[in-house]
Write the structure tokens for this entry.
Amino acid sequence: MSIELGHFALVLAAALALAQTAVGFLFWRTGGRAASFVRQAAILQFILVAASFIALIQAFVVSDFSLKLAYGYSHTLQPLIYKITSVWGNHEGSMLMWVLILTGFGAAVAWYGKRLPHDLMALVLAVQGALGAAFILFTIFTSNPFLRSNPVPLEGRDLNPILQDIGLAIHPPLLYVGYVGLSICFSFAIAALISGRIDAAWARWVRPWALASWTFLSLGIAMGSYWAYYELGWGGWWFWDPVENASLMPWLAATALLHSALVMEKRNALKVWTIFLAILSFSLSLLGTFLVRSGILTSVHSFAADPTRGMVILSMLAVVIGAAFALYAWRASSLRSGGLFAPVSREGALIVNNLFLATAVVAVLVGTLYPLLLQAINGTLISVGAPFFDLTFGILITPLLFLIPFGPFLAWKRGDLIGVIQRLAGAAGLTVLLVIVFTIIIGGQISLATLGMLIGVWCIIGAIAEPIDRAKFGKIDFAQSWRRLKGLPKITWSTTLAHVGVGISVLGVVSVTAWETERVDAMMMNQSVELAGYTVTMVELDRRQEDNFIADKVTFDVVSPWGWERTTSSEKRIYTASNQPSTEAGILTYGLSQLYVSLGEPDETGARIVRLWHKPYITLIWYGFVLMSAGGFLSLSDRRLRVGVPKSAKNASQKSSNSVPAE
Amino acid sequence: MNIWFLIILMSGITFVALIFSARKISPQNSGDGEESDQGVLDDEVLKTEEHFKLQLDGIEADLKVGKLNEVDAENAKAELARELLHHRALLKNAVKTTEKPWTGFALVGTSVLTIGVAIGFYFMLGTPDDSILMRVGDLQQTQVETSEEFESALAQVEAQMLIDPEDVQGWRVLAPAYIRSGRIEDAVNAYRKILELAPLTPDTQTDLAEALLMLGQEQDIGEVMSLLNAAVSIDPAHARSRFYLAAESTRLADWDIAIGHWQALLDMGDGTEPWYATAQSGMAIAQARGETPQPLTPPPVTAQPPALSDPDQAALIRSMVAGLDERLNSEGGSVEEWTRLVRSYTVMGDTEAAQRNYDNAVAAYPQKETRQELDAIAAGAGLTVSNE
């Protein structure tokens, strides 16, 4: 019965979303009652979708195969955690999760936005309702997770083995929060275009949502990258797969949006561009959804190979994006332009940032869509792979990385470039010194890798230099500087953390690209091989039977260059219900580097094919993203960024005496 | 609790919550933190002033650290002042909303429509009465008398398999269901598909061997033995395959091999297993080289092969054999069918039923030359064979 109640709850949520849309658009000028109605509808909608999601989880947990979805993607012998994650390890369930997060964001705006002007609230929630209605109706009519199975099978068909991993519990929810959170920025942008109300306050309302989405999207992408790295057994951390690109594009656009919203909040400038970015970011999220679910791609992400669904999503995409940009074209010219500024200024630096990021989005978009369009038009199959993306993306991002430390040092309105260069000279000197020392230590020569290291270290030291400069270390008494440092606003620290994170990721990418080593061997028992000073010996082969899979598990002893002995194992599994294979890599972490062992098939002599990689400093890639996200969370915790939370007069007066103003 | 009651309850709560939200809000006391239009306006003015104050502090700070010179700072302040004035003017005219007298009715109407649309959609898409769903597992355990319902369920699963013939779980459901409905050849095919699609395990190999034994074709014996031997070679402690190997070796008069399998089986048991007594009898027969030995223990009435893949499957086999027994004894049948029945009882270890049916078969086919295979099986299983 709970399945049917869940089904009804979803249908009721769809009807509520329609009502919310209609009332929001028709009555947005009429004041409090309509706004109150759409708020209530948004909150109820979320509660109902949550109830239907819980009903779905319950059916999976108790292995109720009268639910077709549970039959298709679950198995009685699955551990509980995978029974739960199987709910979104398929197209229908993941759509419901998408809808849950979408309505969750709508409810959050309704709940926390009590102090938003009623007209804006009604319009934002109307747009959010329209998106909710479109996605819930799409779910119900083309991807209904509550369809029943008759007759009821005795056993389920199990989940794709690659997805039977803790990564499925973390990566999709984080990514969806990022993707769907951008819908709020989109809704605010549409509301602004309709009402003509766009100013610094608008940017202040939008920025927390953009920041939250960007933060979760960063974590989701990093988690997805690490999951692919350890689960697929290919040893790579980024493949420029269209589905990966589909998450990278909104992230780049959201990064640009964050920065342009900052300009808008502080200087009331870049209004039209910020609105454009808000629409673009969510449009790219929708494009990602289309790529993943239309069936035009073959990937572990491509749950759906149903052209009907693809056509429906394409139509939704066309309507939502088309309508948004049409409205933009119609109304953008009527928006009042903001404050003026000199080219060399903080605003100018942020525009350069936006320029590079937007161009990078276009480069990735072209590389991703061109092969698909060509195939659709004349059937020609071409592949745009890593060399294209490495080159174009690298060329576009390198100057941006170089310019990162300059931005925070420049003043708003009109900056003094010579002065900034002088203030950054120390950081530049230290960067060059560190890279020279590092290059000498590793006995390397000047190369592209050295340049990459230089840029990574420059980002880190340049970012750290900013709070040190603002605290005036070396210019005033140390104790006073320390007090100033402690008094810096959270947004300064969050900027520093995020920029340091970028530098750290760059260091990881550069070192693993330049210095990774690999070997492939057919290994017999007790045979040893050497890689990058590590000695790897195959010591044990064991066939083990778990509830839902049979595995050949090979254990290796590893002796590091420093003589430390450790053990790791890699498995080749066959999942019995689906008869699908999967590889579990063995990964040993040494400081920031990793040794990666992947077991292959046996050859005709009985030896096992083993691939070994040494990946120097690879973990920096993900640590960098974690730092960036930490910066995002820190910024979110700043009261100044929270919608509807005005600083209390008492605190404000107490703090103002000690604090350093936000820039 | 009736599902429609819960659906109406859910709809009712939603309706009331919507209506409650659409009630008229007093500007003086809006309750639950809800702001009146004027309240929102005041708050917005407050926040805006605070925002511009922070901007001003920023300019002062930039001036102090030398990021801005005096002239630029003055210009920035002037621009800020213009922005503030513009913003105040904007806010003054911002929320001049006029509520239409019929807004309340429209909101109530929308709420009613919402509930109506939801119930309509659900009526179209839902399965409110899920008791109509047929559970294959339940049906497999019902008696043969309900075969019409069972066959209908079977047909639905078969239809599913036509859509996805690679669905190993579907074949796992179908194979024992075929046995239950007496479609042994289809069961053999289903078990072959399972072997093809699923990883090779002693259970899947023995399942196919078991179905081939039920089919009773002498030409399949070679395949049966190789399947069972393969199962035992993967898992020497696999009791079910060992049991069949022992029984078939006994029937084929491979006494030494039979003794080895019976012994291995007896070594696995501790005497409490339902098949243990049958294994002891089999061992005695093999050791006596086919001569009817003095029974060590009374032959069990319901002995069965050990650890059938699941209890349902064992029940199905018993049910199928019982169905054949009933049909042959009431309607008669071919000598091959009688042979299959007697073989099934001997494999199941039910020598009493095997002897009774052997005697009935002899009565139906009194000419010895027509029942040579039957007599050979009976002799191999230690039954009293008619010399007439």
